[in-house]
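ok so for the tutorial part 2 we go from a plain amino acid sequence to predicted structure tokens. step 1 is just haveing the sequence, like this:
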Amino acid sequence: MSQERTVNINDNDYNYAELSQDQQILVDYIETCRKNKAQLAFQLDRENIAEGAFAKMLTESFNKKEEVKEEKDA
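step 2 — the prediction. this is what the tokens look like for a chain of 74 residues:
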């Protein structure tokens, strides 16, 4: 039993196979855009996390440098 592919446009369901070729292409473009946006959002989240980790490491490196300086001065 195969399930027909449907698309929802303006709260109306349409059978994908019954759309015109141009409409099918536009639906495919929209789906591709949504997938790409999700991938970009994932990459942006990952980069934000990495940036935060690097900033934390940099801050900690200055704290370690200050600790070493204080030990030498003591």
